[in-house]
Amino acid sequence: MSASTNATERAQARDPAAARRNVCLRLRVNGEELEAYVAPYKTLLEVLREDLGLTGTKHGCELGECGACAVLIDGAPVLSCLELAVQCEERDIQTIEGLARGTELHPLQAAFADLGGSQCGYCTSGMVMTAKALLDADPAPSRERIKEALSGNICRCTGYQQIWESVEEAARVLRAEKSEAKP
Amino acid sequence: MNAPEKPLKTRFDTVGKPRRRVDGRAKTIGQQRFADDLALPRMLHAKLARSPHAHAAIESVDVSRAQAHRGVHLVLTGADFPIPYGIMPVSQDEYPLARERVRFVGDPVAAVIAVDEQTAAEALDLIEVKYRPLPTIASPEEGLAKPEPRIHDYGEQGNIHRNQAYEFGDVEEALARSDHVFEDLFFYEGNTHLPLEQQASLASIEGDGKLLLQTSTQNPHYLHRQLGRVLQMPTAHIRVMAIANGGGFGGKCDPGNHEFVVSKAALVLGRPVKICLTREEVFYQHRGRHPVLMKFRTGVTKDGRLTAMHLQTLLDGGAYGSHGPASTFYTGVLTPVSYELPRFKFEACRVFTNKPACGPKRGHGTPQPRFGQEVQLDKIAHALGLDPAEMRLKMLTKPDSLTASWLRIGSTGLGECIEKAVEMSGWKARRGKLGPGRGLGLACSAYMCGAGVSIYWNKLPHSAVQLLLDRSGQVTVYCGATEIGQGSDDVLAGLTAEALGIDPVSVRVVTGDTGITPIDLGSYSSRVTIMMGNAALQAAARVRDLLANAAAEALDTLPDRIAFSQERVFAVEDAAKSMSFVEAVAAAEAKFGTIASVGSYAPPKPPGKFKGAGVGPSPAYSFTACVLETEVDPATGWVTVPKIWIAHDIGRALNPVLARGQVIGSVYMGLGEALMEEQAFRRLPPKLSSALVHRNPSMLDYKSLTHMDMPEVEVALIEDPDPNCPYGAKEAGQGPLLPVMPALANAIHDAVGVRIDEVPITPDKVLAALAKKAKGEVPRVGPERFPAVPYPEPTFVLPPWEGGDGNELKGRKAA
Ligand code: FES
Ligand code: FES
Prior knowledge:
The complex is a heterodimer.
Chain A: H1 3-14, E1 23-29, E2 32-38, H2 44-51, E3 70-73, E4 76-79, E5 92-94, H3 107-115, H4 124-137, H5 143-149, H6 161-181
Parallel strand pairs in A: 1-5
Antiparallel strand pairs in A: 1-2, 3-4, 3-5
Chain B: H1 24-28, E1 44-50, E2 56-62, H2 64-68, E3 72-77, E4 101-102, E5 108-114, H3 117-124, E6 128-133, H4 140-145, E7 160-168, H5 171-177, E8 180-188, E9 200-205, E10 211-215, H6 220-231, E11 238-242, H7 257-269, E12 273-276, H8 279-285, E13 292-300, E14 306-318, H9 324-330, E15 343-352, H10 367-384, H11 388-393, E16 401-402, E17 408-409, H12 414-425, H13 427-430, E18 438-448, E19 463-469, E20 475-479, H14 488-500, E21 507-511, H15 528-555, E22 562-565, E23 568-571, E24 574-580, H16 581-592, E25 595-601, E26 621-632, E27 639-649, H17 656-675, E28 681-683, E29 692-694, E30 712-718, H18 740-752, E31 755-756, E32 758-759, H19 763-774, E33 780-781, E34 795-797
Parallel strand pairs in B: 1-12, 7-34, 8-32, 10-11, 14-15, 20-21, 27-30, 31-33
Antiparallel strand pairs in B: 1-5, 2-4, 2-6, 3-5, 7-15, 8-13, 9-10, 9-12, 13-14, 16-17, 18-26, 19-20, 19-25, 22-23, 23-24, 26-27, 28-29
Helix pairs in contact in B: 10-18, 14-15, 15-16, 17-18
Bound molecules: FE2/S2 (inorganic) cluster (2 copies).
């Protein structure tokens, strides 16, 4: 524990309201520098949704059990309900809102929309962001690899199969885009 | 008013083509708004205080300290809500906040409205409730044995909520004549919907002073009525907007305590008030699958045809009525739909217990008896040395026939479903030959395409659609239907587009808003595609007539020679005589004034006339056949399912991507129920008031299938268009769940020769059955006895083929 944390703890012991006092936070979300003035106990999920208006990230448990809240931090999928926002300063946060290229859907989004990967859509943000991390690391994952990578993301609607098909389709499209890009 | 469009159209622009659903874009870019995504200026937050006791009298509630807590704006208690509610007119037994009695751990007693959730949560701890614990009832058996204390002071007697009996033809006489009578007991454990979205609601007062509730409900119309009742307000001053649900599965059908609380708070405070239930609270809200104990006595001839069935069910209702009266019926009424059954007797009893209320979950009351029925058929086939598929094929109900219980079957594709599932799975070549520990199981099912009768009695339409066109070519379609993920908005846009010959993305869809849209009863009983769809086609036909009339004049032809396709309006005999759809709308607007229309739909009258004949009838039934492959590890009892084949008679697939998704999603949920999902409780010691606590109110502990557990599913959609349905389309959202559980049980028998007559089929049960088999005992795990239930004297009705007229035959029953 750093000295400053101890100082904060001591201050809070003297004055419980101190824990509630807002702190100013600078976050880099989808490439934008954003500032928010938030209670220090808030999770990244809460700050994204309640203070930055980025409600594309969902929650199904707020206990790290469902995967609906997954975002990328420095490229890796992270459950935003388990992350304190104050610990995310200086890190690169990506949410579903930053994925489309302008009005054009990212291939993962297009595939989920076209192939039934999204029914109610509530798991979709977490599912798509987790899949993005997978495809960034492995452009041609096997179906087994897709299942493993997404195994922490619960979907109650689809039965998963159309999600696997969507990820496979997006992987194909991304690979084709890449091979076109380098002539 | 109800005739669907005839003759059935056969060439389609939109129907049957795989398409991106109209809300697909919003859902994948994070733009779809769910109820908890909504926020309003000056919004406050609500939290509920819940009972720690399973059954107790409330002696006093002191909210003074909570009231004084900084940041708290309002504390509500039972005293603020004198009027009870309930989704069904016959069980208005709930209060938004408990008044004199709490009936399960989690029953809400008070609410705090504060500046933020944190403050509201702190204030909950400052509320002092004095309880006097009462004896608790954990199971229906216990409820039957202990009529006192009564959990409710209404119901049949003691703790029996509903008790009913029907007999269609003399069943004992037919059983006595049968070559064999099979008697089997089954138990189906309760489980819950677990929608990924936790319920959320935001109440506010609109500029005109009226109440607006934006909420994750499947049934805005029923909620609207109940709000008017509880808040004592004219319903015209209340607007309910069903926000797209993040999954429902039946869990958001009942009005929720929280919905009344935030509405009342907004009315008192004049500020927006929001609540979002925690995941733990969602388990208490429940309204999920009833635990059901069942006894089947089934007579068969030696060549395997049914002669009669006597079915008894005992439902664990939980603490409130909910949809219970309907659920009780559904544990029997659909049993005769799939196979010819000359006589049928059905007795059902629902008992109150001190646990969260059970209600409708996908398949509502029918998965339990379907499990029993299909496993028993497998046992019969084995006992008689018949192929279970062949035996079923020989006794299918016929199209356009009546059942012994006076349900009218319209189209049926069950035979084709069985043949397809058998073919896809290689059933004939592979069954019994997969080697040790591996097996195949088959089961079938039938489900309704919408309940024939509404939840409260009336003669009004069940669904209505309004269409508005303007000179820009814009088509806006309004309907009260609720998008819960199943794709109802897409069905509405797709059908409207097909009827008008335009692209579905040209249609603007406005749904689920009691302030703007015409009625739709809600997203339950697989009714939306059929009822909303028929209403939409009627509305579309009416505007098409106007457009055709104006276009014919301009194109110098007759109105009935006008066709609509690909955003154009043209003369069938000469496609050169054509104009764009936009021009046709403008021409019609010039000729007739503003172009709008309405359409509505009510199901046909049920053929049965006896009291109770209203539950079970439907405009059409869907049918499904499923083959499931399993591998059982004899050392651990672990069951794996590598593959499932399923054929579903959908009438017509409007958008095959969505139809297939509904089928696979149903298989997923059924397999979860078959293998692991259970809403189970444990009784604490008496010094802790014998409270019945939920064993697993979290997503980690309540086991459900992950990506890793889900097998590949091969789907066949059998298309045999039903004339009662829009372009022939039947339901797909519930029926395909039903055969999965019995197919698993039957596959396990094929694999290792043991019977698990109980759901979920967990490894401990498989091991216990294998141990019995090794010892030479009956290789079966399941319920051993059925208690004495004081069922009433049955309502006796003669089947159609015994000279019945659909009325009760009074005074019979000398036998
Ligand atoms: S909300 Fe974060 S894992 Fe469920
Ligand atoms: S689409 Fe509804 S939870 Fe996945």
